């Protein structure tokens, strides 16, 4: 049986833990509001861009793949896959990072089973640490995430530039992005989004043959040279924002649970403490009374 | 048949409605989109997007570069930034132009990318001042 002193110590310990988790919850809640509005504001643009790119991909599908920019059609091969995984830099966010990493590992394992070469570009420290342990030889480079600051477009540009460099050097053939899509504070969904080659619009093939006569101004090469890197950056930026909002949401929920659990633990310990105290008093009384009777 | 126009900037969706015609500032000159046109993908310069209904301009937005995707029944404007014309101020734009011109003087002669980017930005701000001061010419 634990002594009264031990119990008191544990209660104070759990109380200070609760203080910390509660504070983290508050911080996450206020950061979430900001991150959420940013993520939601960026959605229409990224979506319109994605739609436009899908149409473009459909329109150029018939053309000879070798004549198209690699960002649009890929390299024409399907051997080396790059998997970009977005996670957070800090832990204590419930299953946030584990979810993305699980989805990424499923993708990587299925690609490996097909005999493809896989390279991994983790963005964010947490996911990087896990992936390095599982696939040490496939990591291209470990990038840090947003480090708790606001997501900047320059971060997306930097990651985009890395992908483009690898693609142009012929180091990779395809590229997929794995990240957490923000739904609400309770829910984030791990999504796998193909970046290279562009996913083709699925709607109907009848339109595709029609859309093949897309005109471009200025000429096709100039426009695509501007549009494709821009699209890559926008998609990465939007994913970074989604991931940042998801992280705060996940942390808020996790810390809320932790605070609640701490409260429960404190209740349990307090009850145990009081019972022990009562038992001690009863014991002392019995000792005094039986001592008096013996006299 | 009406034309569905969407103007989206990275910050928000500004317009999503049906109109008769829209005129956008293309890299090589203004282009009007009307229903049933051939699909076209277009790079924008800084300038004014004008929405027409019954042969009259109903709304004007200033866009600072971007891309347009036109189809037979829709026109999507992906602007680098977009604002309602009435929200613009010439003085504020002039300040920005001054900043840009000092930056322009500082970039090295061999930095082609920076030159390209800066000249696009300066063109866009000049167009903005022009648009605010002489709306009648548009």
From TrEMBL, chain A:
GO MF term set: ATP binding; proton-transporting ATP synthase activity, rotational mechanism
InterPro entries on file: ATP_synth_F1_ATPase_gsu, ATP_synth_F1_gsu, ATP_synth_F1_gsu_CS
CDD domains cross-referenced by the UniProt entry: F1-ATPase_gamma
Pfam families for this protein: ATP-synt
SUPFAM superfamilies: ATP synthase (F1-ATPase), gamma subunit
Record bears the keyword Membrane: yes
Superkingdom of the source species: Bacteria
Subunit structure: F-type ATPases have 2 components, CF(1) - the catalytic core - and CF(0) - the membrane proton channel. CF(1) has five subunits: alpha(3), beta(3), gamma(1), delta(1), epsilon(1). CF(0) has three main subunits: a, b and c.
Protein name: ATP synthase gamma chain
Protein's organism: Gluconobacter wancherniae NBRC 103581
Gene transcribed to yield this protein: atpG
Automatic annotation (TrEMBL), chain B:
Its membrane topology: Peripheral membrane protein
Cleavable signal peptide: none
Family: Belongs to the ATPase epsilon chain family.
Protein name: ATP synthase epsilon chain
GO cellular component terms listed in the entry, alphabetical order: endomembrane system; plasma membrane; proton-transporting ATP synthase complex
Self-association and partners: F-type ATPases have 2 components, CF(1) - the catalytic core - and CF(0) - the membrane proton channel. CF(1) has five subunits: alpha(3), beta(3), gamma(1), delta(1), epsilon(1). CF(0) has three main subunits: a, b and c.
Keyword Ribonucleoprotein: no
GO MF terms held by the record: ATP binding; proton-transporting ATP synthase activity, rotational mechanism
Domain ATP synthase F1 complex delta/epsilon subunit N-terminal, first and last residues per copy: 3-82
Source species of the chain: Gluconobacter wancherniae NBRC 103581
Function of the molecule: Produces ATP from ADP in the presence of a proton gradient across the membrane.
Entries under InterPro entries matching the protein: ATP_synth_F1_dsu/esu, ATP_synth_F1_dsu/esu_N, ATPsynth_dsu/esu_N
Annotated compartments: Cell membrane; Endomembrane system
Protein keywords: ATP synthesis, Cell membrane, CF(1), Hydrogen ion transport, Ion transport, Membrane, Transport
Principal location listed in the UniProt entry: membrane
Highest taxon of the lineage: Bacteria
Gene3D superfamilies: F0F1 ATP synthase delta/epsilon subunit, N-terminal
């Amino acid at each position: 049986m634990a002594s009264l002193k031990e119990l008191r110590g544990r209660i104070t310990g759990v109380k200070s833990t609760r203080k910390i988790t509660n504070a983290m919850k508050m911080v996450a809640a206020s950061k979430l509001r900001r991150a959420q509005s940013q993520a939601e504001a960026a959605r229409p643009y990224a979506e319109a861009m994605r739609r436009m790119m899908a149409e473009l991909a459909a329109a150029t599908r018939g053309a000879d793949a070798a004549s198209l920019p690699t960002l649009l059609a890929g390299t024409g091969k399907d051997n080396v896959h790059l998997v970009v995984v977005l996670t957070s830099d800090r832990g204590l966010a419930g299953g946030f990072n584990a979810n993305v990493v699980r989805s990424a590992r499923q993708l990587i394992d299925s690609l490996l089973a097909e005999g493809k070469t896989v390279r991994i570009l983790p963005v964010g420290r947490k996911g990087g640490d896990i992936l390095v342990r599982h696939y040490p030889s496939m990591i291209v480079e470990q990038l840090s995430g947003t480090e708790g600051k606001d997501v900047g477009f320059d971060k997306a540009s930097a990651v985009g530039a890395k992908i483009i460099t690898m693609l142009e050097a012929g180091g990779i053939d395809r590229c997929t992005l794995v990240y957490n899509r923000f739904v609400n504070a309770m829910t984030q969904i791990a999504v796998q989004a193909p970046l290279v080659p562009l996913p083709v619009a699925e709607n109907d093939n009848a339109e595709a043959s029609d859309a093949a006569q897309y005109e471009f101004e200025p000429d096709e090469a100039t426009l695509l040279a501007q549009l494709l890197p821009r699209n890559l950056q926008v998609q990465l930026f939007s994913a970074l924002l989604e991931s940042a909002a998801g992280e705060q949401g996940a942390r808020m929920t996790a810390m809320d649970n932790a605070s609640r659990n701490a409260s429960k633990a404190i209740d349990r310990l307090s009850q145990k403490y009081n019972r022990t105290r009562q038992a001690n008093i009863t014991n002392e009384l019995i000792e005094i009374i039986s001592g008096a009777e013996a006299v | 048949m009406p034309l569905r126009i969407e103007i989206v900037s990275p910050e928000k969706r500004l317009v999503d409605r049906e109109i008769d015609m829209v005129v956008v500032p293309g890299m090589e000159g203004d282009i009007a989109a009307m229903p049933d046109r051939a699909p076209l993908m277009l790079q924008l310069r800084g300038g004014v997007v004008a929405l027409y209904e019954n042969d009259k301009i109903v709304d004007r937005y200033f866009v600072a570069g971007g891309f347009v995707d036109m189809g037979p029944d829709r026109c999507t404007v992906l602007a680098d930034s977009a604002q309602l014309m009435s929200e613009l101020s010439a003085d504020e734009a002039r300040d920005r132009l001054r900043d840009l011109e000092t930056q322009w003087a500082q970039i090295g002669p061999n930095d082609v990318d920076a030159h390209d980017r800066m000249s696009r930005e300066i063109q866009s701000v000049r167009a903005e001042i022009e648009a605010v001061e002489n709306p009648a010419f548009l």
